[in-house]
């Protein structure tokens, strides 16, 4: 069975929304995403009790999946030694992740700032991208929060298509996919290390078989090594975090 095709641009209702209303909507939606991410990162639960099924454990990375509707949510968890949460959080964002998903990322930019920790991001992939991303684009929010215990959370998910149609009309030759509740939870340990949980649930839209989408969603959470290299190759990452 395939994922349903995207409606044509003429079939999508465009909502005109004020910046204040958009900020309130995204703040409410992202709060739900943050709670889902914190729940997914809760290591106190017994394996399997929370609906997550472990698929593999290799090179220190645990890969799990959970059915959520027709498509799976996929989670990776790993321990990063000698990397602080403040260092890792510099590359825990929608744009750096998308660059690791597929190198043919032709556009990645912040199109609107709604607050100090709340932004709207546009991601666009080209003709040479992998099938999961070929001619796809995503309009997502990105929210960063520091919890009372110091845990850092980055929540990323698509805005409703009615809102994105008003913010950034879709080009006729592209397919607008959906990134469902996704993001990072970075927990500080006693030493200068951290535990990172990364959750992805992506619906590329268009006519792609569900088994194909679910299989490739699993690969999306395996970007940790590349992100770790980005952190270790940036000696100014601590200073960047302090500035933010």
UniProtKB/TrEMBL annotation:
<dbReference type="InterPro" id="IPR023393">
    <property type="entry name" value="START-like_dom_sf"/>
</dbReference>
<dbReference type="InterPro" id="IPR002913">
    <property type="entry name" value="START_lipid-bd_dom"/>
</dbReference>
<feature type="domain" description="START">
    <location>
        <begin position="49"/>
        <end position="214"/>
    </location>
</feature>
<dbReference type="InterPro" id="IPR051213">
    <property type="entry name" value="START_lipid_transfer"/>
</dbReference>
<protein>
    <submittedName>
        <fullName>PCTP-like protein</fullName>
    </submittedName>
</protein>
<dbReference type="GO" id="GO:0005737">
    <property type="term" value="C:cytoplasm"/>
</dbReference>
<dbReference type="Pfam" id="PF01852">
    <property type="entry name" value="START"/>
</dbReference>
<dbReference type="GO" id="GO:0008289">
    <property type="term" value="F:lipid binding"/>
</dbReference>
């Amino acid at each position: 069975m395939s994922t349903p095709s995207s409606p044509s641009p003429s079939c999508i209702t465009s909502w005109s929304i004020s910046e204040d209303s958009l900020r309130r909507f995204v703040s409410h939606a992202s709060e739900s995403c943050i709670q889902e991410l914190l729940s997914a990162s809760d290591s106190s639960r017994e394996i399997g009790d929370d609906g997550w099924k472990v698929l593999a454990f290799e090179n220190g990375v645990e890969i799990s999946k959970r059915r959520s509707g027709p498509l799976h949510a996929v989670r990776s968890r790993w321990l990063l030694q000698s990397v602080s949460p403040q260092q890792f959080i510099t590359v825990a964002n929608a744009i750096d992740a998308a660059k690791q998903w597929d190198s043919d990322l032709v556009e990645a930019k912040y199109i609107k700032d709604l607050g100090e920790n709340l932004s709207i991001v546009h991601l666009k992939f080209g003709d040479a991208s992998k099938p999961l991303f070929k001619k796809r684009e995503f309009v997502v929010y990105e929210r960063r929060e520091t919890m009372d215990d110091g845990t850092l959370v980055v929540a990323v998910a698509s805005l409703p298509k009615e809102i994105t149609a008003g913010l950034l009309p879709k080009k006729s030759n592209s397919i607008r996919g959906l990134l469902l509740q996704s993001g990072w939870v970075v927990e500080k340990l006693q030493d200068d290390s951290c535990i990172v949980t990364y959750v992805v649930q992506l619906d590329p839209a268009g006519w792609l078989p569900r088994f194909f989408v679910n299989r490739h969603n699993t690969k999306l959470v395996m970007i940790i090594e590349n992100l770790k290299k980005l952190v270790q190759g940036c000696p100014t990452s601590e200073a960047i975090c302090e500035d933010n």
